[in-house]
Amino acid sequence: MSQTATTAFRGNPFVNHAKGREPVAIKTVGIIGAGQMGNGIAHVVALAGYNVLLHDISRERVETALATMNGNMSRQVHRGKITEEDRDSALARIRYAPAVDAFNDADLVIEAATEDEDVKRKILIALCPQLKPHTLIGSNTSSISITRLAAVTDRPEQFIGLHFMNPVPVMELVEMIRGIATDESTFHTARHFVETLNKTVTVAEDFPAFIVNRILLPMVNEAVYTLYEGVGSVEAIDLAMRLGARHPMGPLQLADFIGLDTCLSVMQVLYEGLADTKYRPCPLLVKYVEAGWLGRKTQRGFYDYRGEVPVPTR
Ligand SMILES: NC(=O)c1ccc[n+]([C@@H]2O[C@H](COP(=O)([O-])OP(=O)(O)OC[C@H]3O[C@@H](n4cnc5c(N)ncnc54)[C@H](O)[C@@H]3O)[C@@H](O)[C@H]2O)c1
């Protein structure tokens, strides 16, 4: 094999080397979805000095997110991690965006809405006509194809997966995922942006659930099967994995923390995307989601959080 052929063979087939666009200077960041992840992303982005536009389906949800951020930043002040002035100026940099037309000012928009491909597609289709040509779009999806989401936009070259971890202010990692069309300028600008948030990047290819959730969520799903089959109770399973495998929290506690709807969506993406029955979502996980018992965010999941201490629901 010639040297040229070897080099070509070793080149990353998933990288699009398109050139020619100037790097984007990011000053204002739009965030769509003000839930667990959207409020965490807004928190770290505003503390890093960027202007933030925050949108959700209602003003009330954004106000809840602002109250959560205020509480979380105040805890950081109490622990000496930031000053009161840092908190106040960060909160002052976050503006409510009543509709996507407010994102006309944004240099980067991060989509952090519900893990449902239809929801995300509709958001992206409505968003694109409002954006300036230079604006980049990132999706915080846990599992959905970046290439497919990018394909509904008018700018697949400027679209990238930015998978923050929960809780965003605490977790150091951001997984970055290029779609098939993502260009190098977008990747480098997004990487630099993530690094200004004091996060560490790992790069994953665009396959279902990327790296972290490809490994983590089947483990969580297996814990639900273990419960479903009566191998152990909620407490027994979580205790076993905390003390027996040194996990910082049990897998069912973790599922409640992630959100059971998100866990189920990720398993469905893995099951359908990889066409392998080993990823089939546990029927008990489906039942909890159907009941609206989605974990911490609805006060009930594998544990009931409505009292002083969490109580197992099975
Ligand atoms: N929960 C986790 O641990 C975690 C970790 C990493 C990434 N993610 C991903 O982040 C995204 C959000 O997850 P989350 O845990 O914050 O969920 P969440 O349920 O806490 O929040 C989702 C928010 O999206 C809003 N939303 C729904 N449709 C919308 C629309 N059309 N326009 C604007 N807002 C809309 C909802 O009102 C809600 O406030 C998902 O893609 C999820 O997979 C979640």
UniProtKB/TrEMBL annotation:
It comes from Rhodomicrobium udaipurense. Residues 28-206 form the 3-hydroxyacyl-CoA dehydrogenase NAD binding domain. InterPro entries: 3-OHacyl-CoA_DH, 3-OHacyl-CoA_DH_CS, 3-OHacyl-CoA_DH_NAD-bd, 3HC_DH_C, 6-PGluconate_DH-like_C_sf, 6PGD_dom2, NAD(P)-bd_dom_sf. It is an enzyme of class 1 (oxidoreductase). This is 3-hydroxybutyryl-CoA dehydrogenase. GO terms for molecular function: 3-hydroxybutyryl-CoA dehydrogenase activity; NAD+ binding. NCBIfam families: PRK05808.1, PRK07530.1. Belongs to the 3-hydroxyacyl-CoA dehydrogenase family. Residues 210-305 form the 3-hydroxyacyl-CoA dehydrogenase C-terminal domain. Its EC number is 1.1.1.157.
